[in-house]
Amino acid sequence: MAQAAEPAPRRLWIRNPLAILAVGAEGGIVVEGTRIVEHVAAGAQPSRPVDETFDASRHVVIPGLINTHHHAFQTLTRAHPIAINKPLFPWLKALYTIWGRITPEAFRLATRVAYTELLLSGCTTAGDHHYLFPKGLEDSVDVQVDEARALGIRAFVTRGSMSLSDREGGLPPQALTQDDDTILSDSERVLNLFHDPAPGAMVQIGLAPCSPFAVTKRLMRESADLAARYGCRLHTHLGETLDEDDYCQSMFQCRPVEYLEEVGWLNDQVWLAHGIHFNDAEVARLGKAGVGVCHCPTSNMTLASGRCRTCELEAAGSPVGLGVDGSASNDSSNLMEGVRHAVMLSRLTYGAEAVTHLDALRWASEGSAACLGRSDIGRIEVGREADLALFTLDELRFSGAHDPLAALVLCGAHRADRVMVAGRWRVIDGQPVGVDVGRLREDHSRLAVALFGGA
User: Fold this and answer.
1) CATH code for 65-371?
2) Strand duo 28-32 + 52-55: pairing
3) What is the pLDDT of residues 325-376, one digit of tens each?
4) Which of 28, 57, 233, 424 has the smallest count of CB within 10 Å of its CB?
């Protein structure tokens, strides 16, 4: 017996938005299956009948935001007394003393909280850099993939690593590190299990040694070789603080960008977190190689690390994206808030006329997509995935605002009303679909206090 034909994907018209960050779509867009299939001009109708219409007349529609750097486990140690009011290295050393207490249950809840917060802020692709694998957390990548699939958010999980403990000249205690062979073996395992290189992928894997001072040269080089074999991307922290530059000079007798080239990482499959303390020659080298940089403005201000040279990097040819960074150096997993901070910090650096709200929104969408090597997300464009964030301007903070897109950023939007991922609503009326937020907060908070409250 012949099989019945697959039903045609339903067509949804997101109609007449208050504003939309797309050209020629003033009348809205049509979504079919997981993709955007049509822009509708002002006053026009879709070219073919639709099955469903969503009235977006109260909504400002932007591409789903893309987070390119985070540490989900850190939601458990926000605003912790042992770490607040410290710069990066003292902050890390303080928290390393307690992070080894994280249990599998706590890690799962920490990831769920981070992903949910990101989704509520209008983020549709959640990048996470997980480098903490104490005993009991060996399957952390599996947990993060599982949580992303349950929530319906796209995930770019990087298999991080630390192999140099404080005994070998690194920063972390030995209990938080793994040997190179264990790291490389598990990296290959998770690539085989989860990495999907196809357009529209819901889960992708990258390899991400934590930083040059946390792993061996062998691990950096062999991670690059493994990434080349599997066609995945590479990620690490670099140029975050002057202390880090000094550490690299002392440990490797070269500056961080020189070290990056030495270990085979100076290419367009790499994106870096922070990238603050690069000189002019290094900016040019990174741009020429197409190395991406994730700007983390909130974390950089919290730790007083410095200001990313966003405009120079972008002009040189480096993709620039945005990230919230860990919730112990940001104390929030809100990417829309990060968009506003990116505008403010960049204006302080370059001047009020040099960086607009549109620049920061572009960094958080199209720029972040480029950092992740994806051309199927990041813009509201026919043929791209239907990843969308819809915000209302009903709060008092927006009263009197005249430019809806500018108001999102300048008036401080921080919570989306609707979020669509791959053509499916994942946030409706400001609530994540299928998540009991109250219960999640209670469970997460309980474990955070039990594990870290007495530190």
Assistant:
1) 3.20.20.140
2) unpaired
3) 999 999 999 999 999 999 999 999 999 999 999 999 999 999 999 999 999 9
4) 57
**How many separate helices (H) and strands (E) can be counted in the chain?**
15, 18
Cα atoms in the 13 Å half-sphere on the side-chain side of 425: 15
Contact 283, 309 (CB under 8 A): yes
Cβ-based burial of 167 (10 A; exposed 0-12, middle 13-18, buried ≥19)? exposed
Question: How many other CB atoms are there within 10 angstroms of residue 57's CB atom?
Answer: 9
Q: What is the identity of the amino acid at 342?
A: A
Q: What is the mean pLDDT of residues 253-265?
A: 94
Strand order in the sheet with 418-421: 19-20, 59-63, 388-392, 418-421, 424-428, 431-432
Could you please report the per-residue DSSP string of 382-432? Answer: TTSB--EEEEE--SGGGTT---HHHHHHHTT----SEEEETTEEEEETTEE
Q: What is the Cα–Cα distance from 341 to 327, expressed in whole angstroms?
A: 15
Model confidence pTM above 0.85:
yes
Strands 123-130 and 424-428: unpaired
Annotated domain spans of the chain = 11-63+378-432, 65-371
Distance CA 338, CA 330 (A): 9
DSSP class of 417: S
**How many Å apart are CA 320 and CA 292, to the nearest integer?**
6
> 202: which 2 tokens?
């819901």
Rounded to 5°, the CA angle 59-64-65 comes to 115
**Rounded distance between C-alpha atoms, residue 230 and residue 225, angstroms:** 9
Gap between the Cα atoms of 334 and 296, Å rounded? 12
What pLDDT score does 346 carry? 96
